[in-house]
Amino acid sequence: MTASLVRLSLEPLGPHFGAEVHGLDLDRATDAEIEAVRATLVDRKVLFFRGQTLDVDGQIRLGRRIGELTASHPVVGGVDEDHPEVYALDSADNGFADVWHTDVTFMPRPPLGSILRAVTLPPTGGDTNWADSQLAYDSLSAPVRDLVDRLTAVHDGNREFGYYLAQRRGGKGSVWDGEVVTRLDPIEHPVVRVHPETGRKGIFVNPGFTSHIVGVSEAESRAILDLLYAHLTKPEHVVRHRWRAGDVAMWDNRSTAHYANRDYGDARRVMHRITLRGDRPFGP
């Protein structure tokens, strides 16, 4: 049986972007169902699964069925010694994500995708928002598309993780793409990324990690990036998920950006994330 023969029960969250998948137990899914999830992920870009019973081991098993897992993060270690693949976002340890970003774009090969599991949720708040970078690109005016198609941007992990690498990890991070991360050298990526599976173009800059555009003045870089950020995060390009216990979210890191609301005061929020190994971005 192939993925084309499996029909997932989807509740679309927008005309072209995001869906809730009903009636699928991720820990018991067949190979064909997992193939269908993988194909649907590319199409809908972010998927949500309610009422799951995954624990940390089940989350890792799921990830390995979908792709090749990376370390938890290039700089931040795993949740414990037995689970080096799991990145714990714990609000009690500054584990926030309240800046629009695409995961780990400051490495030469950012993750293909991410799988996020709710572990501890605040009584209210803590929603996560995802933006469709391909829909945002398509809705730019033609002259602006022509401009950004030709641009390259620098992504710099030192903006968020340089201090952590130096002070918390003693200058020795995780093994990423076969090498121990000892420094975060700025990396260049195209401003517009071509999706390797669909050929669609998407905006591939983000406020979290993009520092500037190559070959233009500082003022021009700021203006272009501000335009793209504002356009990317327009409400018509965004879906929002209100977390419940047992929820799992899965997204295509090559065609989305996301933002976690930090609106729950002193309450604790803990999420566990794993990432799938990706490829080097290429432009038009």
TrEMBL record:
Occurrences of domain TauD/TfdA-like (ranges): 10-275
InterPro entries: AtsK-like, TauD-like_sf, TauD/TfdA-like
Keyword terms: Dioxygenase, Iron, Metal-binding, Oxidoreductase
One Gene Ontology MF term: 2-oxoglutarate-dependent dioxygenase activity
UniProt-listed Pfam families: TauD
Cellular component, GO, one term: cytoplasm
Family per similarity comment: Belongs to the TfdA dioxygenase family.
Protein name, per record: Taurine dioxygenase
Organism: Virgisporangium aliadipatigenens
